[in-house]
Amino acid sequence: MTKKAIIFDLDGVIVDTAKYHYLAWRELAIQLGFDFSEAQNEQLKGVSRVRSLEILLDIGNVQLEEEQKTKLLIEKNAQYLEYIAEMDHTEILPGIDDVLHYLKLNKIPFSLGSASKNARLILETLDLLNLFDAIVDGNDVSTAKPDPEVFLIAAQKLGVEPDNCIVIEDAQAGVEAANKANMLSVGIGDKEILKEADYVLNSTAELTIDFLQKLID
Ligand code: BG6
Ligand code: MG
């Protein structure tokens, strides 16, 4: 049987942190004098911190000097980390803990493929870090999603061909990256937003062991 592997995005797939990214960016937007909706936030999902700020400033039609942007990036991350510090196991998304333990027990390799530079800290806080066979995050890539680099590095680390990898993603940019990497993409969220994905599930509660096993077999 061909060896298959699973690559998980972090924010909005393993843990319910997408809302904290949104809240922290929204606070920044309000401070800069404009509102920032959840619909607009879809554009920020999956993309790097630096790119997120550029998109946010474009939305608000705000031009800033590099120095000010650097200051805002630090501020946003500090605010985000304050939310993260309060986080516990209850914020692991439905079914994920069971799925990860099942994969581990059945020796099905899996990796993280996240844009976040806070990924290791978050997984460690949730006691999930050591379960993963590989971790690829925002510190390991030179080009962010929708570029496929993060997923291609993950496949390489796992020793599995890209077309034998299954990516679980909640972001448009992530689904695009998975498709570009020639991987099977499973979107978690809105079917309209994630229409490019091979499969779309409403939430991680639908990402059952049965569903994954069928993709692996
Ligand atoms: C992605 C999130 O996982 O990580 C984005 O979907 C976020 O919203 C990006 O901007 C970078 O995260 P961090 O933690 O490095 O700011
Ligand atoms: Mg995500």
- Shape assignment: globular
Structure summary, number of beta strands: 6
Q: In CATH, what is the homologous superfamily of the largest domain?
A: HAD superfamily/HAD-like
What fold name goes in the CATH topology slot of the largest domain?
Rossmann fold
**Helical content (DSSP H or I, runs of 4+):** 40-55%
Q: What is the number of independent domains?
A: 2
Tell me what the CATH architecture of the largest domain is: 3-Layer(aba) Sandwich
What ligand molecules are bound, each kind once? 6-O-phosphono-beta-D-glucopyranose, magnesium ion
Report, as a whole number of angstroms, the end-to-end distance: 8 Å
The major beta sheet can be summarized as:
6 strands, parallel
Q: Please report the first level of CATH classification, the CATH class of the largest domain.
A: Alpha Beta
Widest sheet: strand ordering: 3-2-1-4-5-6
Round the Cα radius of gyration to an integer and report it: 17 Å
* Poorly predicted regions: none
Question: What is the SS-derived class?
Answer: alpha/beta
Walk me through this protein's architecture:
With 217 residues, the chain is of the alpha/beta class. It folds into two domains: 5-16 and 88-216, HAD superfamily/HAD-like (Rossmann fold, 3-Layer(aba) Sandwich); 18-84, Orthogonal Bundle (DNA polymerase, domain 1). It is 43% helix and 11% strand. It contains nine helices and six strands. A six-stranded parallel beta sheet has the order 3-2-1-4-5-6, sandwiched between helices. The longest helix has 20 residues, at 66-85. The radius of gyration is 17 Å and the shape is globular. It binds 6-O-phosphono-beta-D-glucopyranose and magnesium ion. Magnesium ion (MG) binds next to loops.
